[in-house]
Amino acid sequence: MLEQKVVCDAVICYTHIMGNSSDTDFERMLTGGHPNSLGNTVEAVELVLKTPELFPKLFGCYQSKDEVVRLRVSNAMKRIARVNPELVYSKIDSLLNETARIDQASTQWTLAQLFDILQALLTADQKKAAIKIMKKNVEKHTDWIVLTQTMEVLTNWSKNDSTLVQWLLTNLPKHERDQRKSVAGKATKCLQKLSKLK
After folding, report:
1. What's the predicted TM-score (pTM) here?
2. Do the beta carbons of residue 40 and residue 10 sit within 8 Å?
3. How far apart, in whole angstroms, are the C-alpha atoms of residue 115 and residue 95?
4. Which of 41, 60, 118, 126 fits as disulfide partner to 72, beta carbons 3.0 to 4.6 Å?
5. Closest Cα partner for 181 from 148, 159, 154, 155?
6. In Å, how far from its chain's centre is CA 187?
């Protein structure tokens, strides 16, 4: 019965959104179902891509108290950025500030991915701020996806940044000793790339 109600609510919400975009309730649309599932994320993305003026409402769900909603918003941002990077870039100030302060692994690893997708659009100051956020995650975060995604992005960004290369050469070796093979392996691969940039 619970699963039927979740599906029913999603259908009602989807129909409601299609009927009147001014009343869009993305939080309701992204609520429910298995915590690790996408739920109605794809539908939300399709709505925003068709009607870009809805984007601020979807982005606003980053402030939801429901961590599942926030996880799905992160997934939606990545999907939208791949198709319409300028749309996501319109919220770069929020991404670098309020969103970056969200203590949730999915938000942090998505930030690394978004920064990478949006790199060509970033100003020098915005790129500097993005690097600062990612450095902090490399230094202090413990989630394996956050670490692997962030190490990879920073390594890719260091090709023309000797200062970043040196920082990574100093801070990645500790992750080679991580008991998780995914983290240790990524650190080793990144260090191998970095050694060629010295």
Report:
1. 0.86
2. yes
3. 9
4. 41
5. 148
6. 20
